Amino acid sequence: MADFDLVVIGCGPAGEWGAVQAALGGKRVVVVEREPVLGGTAANTGTLPSKTLRETALHLSGLKARGLYSVETTLRHEATVSDFLYRERRVKGMERERILQNLQRHGVQVVRGTGSFADTHTVLVRSQDGTERRLTGDFILVATGSAPYRPPQYPFGDPRVHDSDEILDIGRLPRSLVVVGAGVIGCEYACMFAALGIPVTLVDLKHEVLPFLDDEISALLGQRMVALGIRLRFGQNVNTVEVPPSQDEPIRLTLSTGEVVDTDQVLVASGRTANTTGLGLEALGVKLSKRGHVEVGPDFQTVVPHVYAVGDVIGFPALASTSMDQARIAVEHAFDLTSARTLAPVLPYGIYTIPEVSMAGETEESLREKEVPYVVGRAAFSSNPRGQIIGEMHGLLKLLFHRESLKLLGVHVLGEQATELVHIGLTALLTGSGARLFVETCFNYPTLSEAYKTATFDALDYLKRVGD
């Protein structure tokens, strides 16, 4: 008989909630965690810390209040690293404690150390003091997450060159910053440092901001980033990096166009690599991608039937929210806890740039590609009473309806509370609802949520005009 019904390797969102799901099903569960703290990237170096820093940057800069009361505010005081990181460290501490209490409350054991496969049912755990322990499990869930990819041309040993994890331990705020990589992480950090008044240059080989977004929203976000003071260098990559030994001298980057950019510090945000090195998965026959991502089936089962993998370690979409749901499905499949195992067919995307952006469902571009007839409804926050009250002059809600059935096909939000507002549209998408739902819904007044009604009437008005 195995020591445990389930051995979980890694305690980020996927590992935590996979363990809890199995414990709720009456299973004996142990979690192996190599880091001294629980929570993985989401709690310690990614999701929560970066979003907390965003709010701190907005607070310290007074950016939200600029122009709101006919008074131009400036940076409230010379921000220090201590100012910048104070709240972030508080939030991390509270989340780590919540995770530990959640596992304890459900009877999940936690074993500290680095786990690897000794055989298909055994995880060997090596602790920092060199001791080893073998844990056997009927099922094993790999939830080891990911780490920033480090291109070899950057000298990460220099204290002024950071990856997206290290940026949380900066010794001082940069006098200027180059962000290499305009993915979600790069764009978010570029915005928060620019909000503090730090000159930021964003470099990427792509020619637009976050091309997976609806083109209109991508263009609007790019405009707001430029207005924030970010210099966009798109369609370019970094050819050479010169880091002088003296920290008083600037780091020099030469771009593929020949442009030379001098900067105080560099943040490299060039994607992430799965944490699978040393796990021993290949010896079991489990297939890995070039960046170490684990290949799984629809129920997150590997080619080894009792070994599952979930979260960042399997790649896209690599979101905390989807990782938790993947873990639920994997555990339900492993122990046959329920016959209804489904991942939501529509997933929301939340991007914590300044301003926030969020979306769910189709874009105009995807609908045109599929030759689906559609109509667009827009609601500008500048004409929304709540938007006027809070000074949100650039926000936009964009709804995409099927031109004939008026079923909602996509929702896109840019502006204050975008990542919250998107859930109204997401619920409509998941229930197959359409324009009628928003027409008949009574929204509180004044709220940004009212924009759903405004955008719907905008689409209906357009159809009436073209029909006439």
| Gross geometry | globular
What name does the CATH topology of the largest domain carry? FAD/NAD(P)-binding domain
Uncertain spans, ≥5 residues at pLDDT below 50?
none
How much strand content do the residues show?
15-25%
Describe the protein's architecture and organization:
The protein has 468 residues and is α/β, with parallel strands linked by helices. It folds into three domains: 4-148 and 273-335, FAD/NAD(P)-binding domain; 161-270, 3-Layer(bba) Sandwich (FAD/NAD(P)-binding domain); 355-467, Enolase-like, domain 1 (2-Layer Sandwich). It has 13 helices and 22 strands. The chain has helices at 13-24, 40-44, 47-61, 81-105, 184-195, 215-227, 281-284, 320-335, 364-370, 385-390, 418-430, 435-440, 451-467, and strands at residues 4-9, 29-33, 109-112, 114-119, 122-126, 132-142, 146-148, 161-163, 177-180, 200-204, 230-234, 238-242, 251-255, 260-263, 265-268, 272-274, 307-309, 349-351, 357-361, 374-380, 396-402, 408-414. Strand 12 (238-242) and strand 13 form a beta hairpin. Helix 1 runs parallel beside helix 8 (320-335) and helix 3 (47-61) runs parallel beside helix 5. The protein is globular and about 75 Å long. The model has no long low-confidence stretch (mean pLDDT 91).
Characteristics of this structure?
single chain, alpha/beta, FAD/NAD(P)-binding domain, Enolase-like, domain 1, 3 domains, seven-stranded mixed beta sheet, 32% helix, globular
Topology summary:
Blueprint: E1 4-9, H1 13-24, E2 29-33, H2 40-44, H3 47-61, H4 81-105, E3 109-112, E4 114-119, E5 122-126, E6 132-142, E7 146-148, E8 161-163, E9 177-180, H5 184-195, E10 200-204, H6 215-227, E11 230-234, E12 238-242, E13 251-255, E14 260-263, E15 265-268, E16 272-274, H7 281-284, E17 307-309, H8 320-335, E18 349-351, E19 357-361, H9 364-370, E20 374-380, H10 385-390, E21 396-402, E22 408-414, H11 418-430, H12 435-440, H13 451-467
Parallel strand pairs: 1-2, 1-6, 2-3, 6-17, 8-15, 9-10, 9-15, 10-11
Antiparallel strand pairs: 4-5, 5-6, 7-16, 12-13, 13-14, 18-19, 19-22, 20-21, 21-22
Helix pairs in contact: 1-8, 3-4, 3-5
